[in-house]
């Protein structure tokens, strides 16, 4: 996947961002876990209580049909988060995330695909898994 | 039962570190030994490469003795894409290295260790030793699975323990 | 639910065997004291015990006969008596080494000494090349032979170290009796043929052979010599019974030990192997051994016994 961690947004990315704004997309929060404590065995044994921060993904497009739930996120929003949190890439960001909060429901991210234009990503498709009932 | 799981993880982690101290990974921003228990971490569909992931499967009990004997099946999964510098062409060798490290950790005598209760850890207290040991059998290495650019394998090992009076 | 752990049956995965010599001339076995040494590390047994490695198919059989003594009408058992004391042990050795071969065959275990050029073929080895003199300063793990003599040996080869045979009768073999000579022989290398004082060469430098383990007889005497060994040979038949003190240890998973000590074991049968199916179409050839336990008198109470079973908690 193309690395967006260093470069500024390009025209295609801005178009995608603008489209999501214009269509009145819903909002979503990316739930990121806080840093683990170094050398703490209780962290590794599930005894610790991690801290979370919920970060805005900006306007998103949320699709759900049958068992297929997908979220379209603009690359501009992802780029902002990657740079502010100093992650190596969007891949690492989404692999590390605890999930996506939409309407108060936490979805697990199962897959991440990128849409590119002119060799640069302009949006991300996240496949989500709703919580078990 | 949880004490046996925790003890096995701690023992295996320490043995893996002794075999290869360089095998580390980053979990929630912290570098730590590349071995974790899936059920003790945040749920995720993304599998860390070059890291041993423990998953507990079925449990059977034998209540004939004065203490119930528990046998828990533990699956240890790991996968690797090789190293970037080699374009992943060394993924077979790196998987074989992980095979060797796991065998070197699980096989040597003694294949038992004292069971501990780790619940005092969040209070800053040390783990409490219990009256019995846990022990484990020979690892069974599964078939190599090809996952796009990664090679993966699952190893299964039986972990046994006695359920002591008052232990949950 | 009981909190006692001692009452749980030991769960043993494998049994390990150890050997110690019996002084055949003095009829003195090596006794193992479980109260002092019951929890020794598996890979570091207390001297003079030697590790024989893991064994499988370990089976003990009790042959002791207990007869009732009856009296009265109707005849009623009012006491019992042990009329025959007997015990046997069966096992498979997991490894093939000089000691395992010797005890499994139960009789003289011959070292195949490197044959002299043109020697007449014999079933247990032809006339050997002359043995090398061992120089002063040698130890149980380093044999100083001098550069010329050392050049006749090779790394990885075995070497037998013992005295020349000079016509003696009785038990022969340094450290452990390897045979009993009833009629004087003529082979000057005979003692080195039957000796258990052998080791494998791991390095040769400056005329010195470095050995992988100390010689069982310790520092070689000045009159001992070294012969290169190309293999080992044992025979079905012969009159000699090899005798050894044995210790078998099973470790439970709670750290407890079950120890079976047989001060005197002699072979019950002849030379045999068992072929065990292995993977890939191969068969593993395992050394089989069957032994009878001979009696000793326990000085604690003067009772005549053939074996000791001990349980030592962790």
Q: Which structural class is indicated by helix and strand composition of chain A?
A: alpha+beta
Which ranges of chain B are low-confidence, i.e. pLDDT below 50, for 5 or more consecutive residues?
none
Shape of chain A: globular
- How far apart the termini of chain B lie comes to 6 Å
- Give the count of helical stretches of chain B: 2
Number of helices of chain A: 4
Profile the largest sheet of chain A: 6 strands, antiparallel, barrel
Rg of chain B, Cα atoms, Å: 17 Å
Q: What's the assembly state of these chains? A: heterotrimer
- Order of SSEs of chain B: HEEEEEHEEEEE
Name the beta content range of chain B. 35-45%
Estimate what percentage of residues of chain A fall within beta strands. Answer: 35-45%
- Helix/strand class of chain B: alpha+beta
Can you describe this structure?
The complex is a heterotrimer of chains A (133), B (168) and C (314). Chain A is built from 4 helices and 6 strands. In chain A, a hairpin with a 2-residue loop joins strand 5 and strand 6 (120-129). Chain A is α+β, with helices and mostly antiparallel strands. The longest helix of chain A has 12 residues, at 11-22. The model of chain A has no long low-confidence stretch (mean pLDDT 82). A 6-stranded antiparallel beta barrel of chain A has the order 1-2-3-6-5-4. Chain B has 2 helices and 10 strands, in the order αβββββαβββββ. Chain B has helices at 2-19, 91-106, and strands at residues 24-27, 30-33, 35-37, 52-62, 69-80, 112-117, 128-136, 140-141, 145-147, 150-162. With 168 residues, chain B is of the alpha+beta class. By secondary structure, chain C is mainly β. Chain C contains 4 helices and 21 strands. Chain C has helices at 34-37, 98-105, 147-150, 190-194, and strands spanning 15-21, 50-62, 65-71, 76-84, 87-93, 109-113, 132-133, 142-144, 158-162, 170-172, 179-181, 198-205, 208-211, 225-234, 243-251, 257-267, 273-277, 283-293, 296-297, 304-305, 308-312. In chain C, strands 6, 7, 8, 9, 12, 13 and 14 form a 7-stranded antiparallel beta sheet that branches. In chain C, a hairpin with a 6-residue loop joins strand 10 (170-172) and strand 11 (179-181). The longest helix of chain C is centred in the N-terminal third of the chain and has 8 residues, at 98-105. The A-B interface holds A 33-48, 50, 94-96, 98, 108-111, 129 and B 6, 9-10, 13, 27-32, 36-37, 39-46, 118-119, 121-122, 127.
């Amino acid at each position: 996947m193309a690395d967006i961690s260093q470069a500024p947004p390009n025209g295609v990315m801005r178009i995608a961002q603008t489209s999501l704004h214009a269509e009145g997309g819903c909002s979503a929060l990316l739930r990121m876990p806080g840093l683990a404590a170094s050398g703490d065995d209780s962290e590794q044994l599930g005894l610790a209580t991690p801290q979370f921060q919920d970060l805005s993904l900006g306007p998103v497009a949320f699709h759900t049909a049958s068992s297929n739930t997908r979220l379209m996120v603009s690359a501009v929003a992802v780029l902002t988060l990657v740079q502010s949190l100093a992650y190596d890439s969007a891949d690492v960001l989404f692999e590390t995330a605890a999930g996506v909060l939409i309407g108060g429901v936490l979805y697990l991210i199962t897959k991440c695909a990128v849409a590119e234009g002119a060799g640069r990503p302009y949006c991300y498709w996240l496949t989500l898994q709703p919580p078990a009932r | 039962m949880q004490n046996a799981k925790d003890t096995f993880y701690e023992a295996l982690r320490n043995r893996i570190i002794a075999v290869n101290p360089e095998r580390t990974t980053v979990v929630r921003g912290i570098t730590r030994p590349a071995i974790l228990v899936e059920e003790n971490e945040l749920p995720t569909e993304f599998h860390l490469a070059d890291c041993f992931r423990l998953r507990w499967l079925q449990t059977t009990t034998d209540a004939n003795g004065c203490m119930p004997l528990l046998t828990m099946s533990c699956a240890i999964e790991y996968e690797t894409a090789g190293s970037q510098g080699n374009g992943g062409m060394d993924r077979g060798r790196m998987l074989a290295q992980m095979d060797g490290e796991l065998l070197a950790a699980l096989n040597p005598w003694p294949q038992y260790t004292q069971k501990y209760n780790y619940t005092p850890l969040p209070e800053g207290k040390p783990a409490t030793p219990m009256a019995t040991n846990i022990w484990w059998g020979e690892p069974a290495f599964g078939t190599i699975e090809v996952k796009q650019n990664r090679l993966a394998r699952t190893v299964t090992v039986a972990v046994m323990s006695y359920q002591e009076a008052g232990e949950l | 639910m009981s909190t006692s752990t001692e009452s749980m049956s030991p769960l043993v995965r494998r049994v390990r065997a150890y050997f110690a010599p019996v002084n055949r001339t003095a009829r003195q076995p090596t006794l193992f004291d479980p109260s002092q040494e019951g929890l020794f590390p598996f890979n570091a047994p207390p001297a003079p015990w030697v590790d024989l490695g893991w064994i499988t198919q370990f089976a003990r059989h009790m042959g002791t006969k207990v007869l009732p003594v009856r009296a009265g009408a109707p005849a009623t058992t009012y006491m019992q008596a042990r009329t025959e004391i007997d015990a046997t042990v069966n096992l498979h050795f997991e490894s093939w080494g000089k000691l395992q071969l010797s005890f499994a065959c139960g009789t003289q275990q011959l070292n195949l000494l490197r044959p002299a050029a043109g020697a007449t073929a014999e079933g247990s080895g032809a006339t050997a090349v002359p043995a090398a003199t061992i120089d002063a300063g040698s130890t149980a793990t380093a044999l100083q032979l001098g550069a010329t003599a050392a050049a006749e040996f090779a790394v990885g080869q075995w070497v037998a170290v013992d005295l020349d045979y000079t016509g003696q009768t009785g038990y022969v073999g340094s450290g452990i009796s390897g045979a009993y000579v009833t009629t004087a022989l003529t082979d000057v290398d005979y003692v080195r043929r039957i000796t258990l004082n052998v080791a494998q060469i791991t390095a040769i430098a400056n005329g010195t052979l470095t050995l992988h383990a100390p010689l069982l007889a310790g520092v070689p005497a000045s009159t001992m010599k070294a012969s290169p060994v190309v293999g080992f040979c044992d025979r079905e038949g012969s009159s000699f019974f090899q005798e050894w003190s044995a210790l078998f240890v099973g470790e439970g998973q709670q750290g407890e030990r079950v120890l079976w000590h047989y001060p005197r074991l002699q072979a019950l049968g002849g030379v045999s192997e068992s072929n065990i199916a292995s993977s890939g179409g191969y068969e593993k050839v395992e050394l089989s051994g069957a032994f009878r336990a001979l009696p000793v008198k326990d000085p604690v109470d003067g009772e005549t016994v053939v074996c000791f079973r001990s349980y030592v908690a962790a």
